[in-house]
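F.,

This is the one I mentioned.
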């Protein structure tokens, strides 16, 4: 079995590449930078056709990730990778199975429990819009699309660092009352990526077995930091008034409205997420 992984130089893709390597499968990491293992094949998703020669399975995680300010230029930058890059990848894959990693941010629903049949629309950022457009292409091409949410783990460059930067004088302001939300351990996502190659085509939510109370998570990952709850409207106004703030309007919404992913469809394929937040917090040293 030879597996091509994109995004191997990144956080989630690095875990996937190492997991493929541990299985003893042949590994090729396609990207601008090498992955943590396997052979490197250079690929800039924004411009190039990927060389998938010899691959039996493609796991696609490369993406423009983040929460940029509005504007045509940023939208185009995200589109070049997440939509046009996806199109080039799917064309090159031909009939090979493709696991395409999407995101829970494609859902229109902001709160409550969502199944994969919930509407995918009205994304509020360039990231969400271009991930939704990319996954539409992937679904049309018969790929397996995974939708994780808020991926955490050692080496996470997005979630925890952003929360840490939002702490001011030992206090973090959280919008609205406590909510339940889904998080995805990066190890659970990597495990799903490896197993999903032979799942029926379609979309699958991927998250830890149970949702977590937001305030408890923040208290656990930011020990010693005091939590102050502020009205959602005030937090949204602050995000608009202070551009460049770590807690952007989108981030406020992510924290204010608890979104829970129903993972029944992935479970029905025999997948069971084993890792929980407590495992991550209890690791004496980074586990990869
Ligand atoms: N982290 C989360 O909370 C989360 C939640 C839901 C879904 N996801 C999805 O998980 C996937 C991985 O995200 P991540 O958190 O691991 O992000 P990350 O650490 O920022 O990694 C992004 C990866 O994409 C690659 N990439 C970006 N632009 C590229 C380009 N033009 N050509 C080739 N490769 C390019 C980067 O490689 P180089 O910069 O080295 O080229 C890097 O390997 C993404 O598809 C993301 O949408 C993540």
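My design for it:
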């Amino acid at each position: 079995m030879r597996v091509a992984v994109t995004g191997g130089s990144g956080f989630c893709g690095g875990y996937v590449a190492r997991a493929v390597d541990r299985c003893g499968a042949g590994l090729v990491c396609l990207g601008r930078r090498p992955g943590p293992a396997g052979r490197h094949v250079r690929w800039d998703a924004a411009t190039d056709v990927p060389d998938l020669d010899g691959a039996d399975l493609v796991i696609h995680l490369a993406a423009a990730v983040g929460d940029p300010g509005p504007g045509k230029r940023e939208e185009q930058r995200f589109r070049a990778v997440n939509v046009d890059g996806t199109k080039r990848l799917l064309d090159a894959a031909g009939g090979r199975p493709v696991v395409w990693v999407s995101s829970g941010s494609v859902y229109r629903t902001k709160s409550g429990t969502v199944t994969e049949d919930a509407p995918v629309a009205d994304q509020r950022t360039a990231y969400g819009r271009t991930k939704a457009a990319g996954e539409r292409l992937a679904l049309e091409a018969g790929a397996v699309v995974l939708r994780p949410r808020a991926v955490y783990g050692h080496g996470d460059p997005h979630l925890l660092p952003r929360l840490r930067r939002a702490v001011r004088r030992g206090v973090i302001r959280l919008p609205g009352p406590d909510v339940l939300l889904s998080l995805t351990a990066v190890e659970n996502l990597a495990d799903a990526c490896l197993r999903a190659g032979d799942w029926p085509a379609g979309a699958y939510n991927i998250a830890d077995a149970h949702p977590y109370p937001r305030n408890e998570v923040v208290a656990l990952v930011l020990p010693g930091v005091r939590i102050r709850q502020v009205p959602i409207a005030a937090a949204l106004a602050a995000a608009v008034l202070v551009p460049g703030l770590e807690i952007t309007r989108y981030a406020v919404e992510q924290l204010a409205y608890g979104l829970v992913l129903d993972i029944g469809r992935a479970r029905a394929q025999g997948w069971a997420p084993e890792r929980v937040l407590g495992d991550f917090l209890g690791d004496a040293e980074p586990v990869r």
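The chain has a mean pLDDT of 94.

Talk soon.
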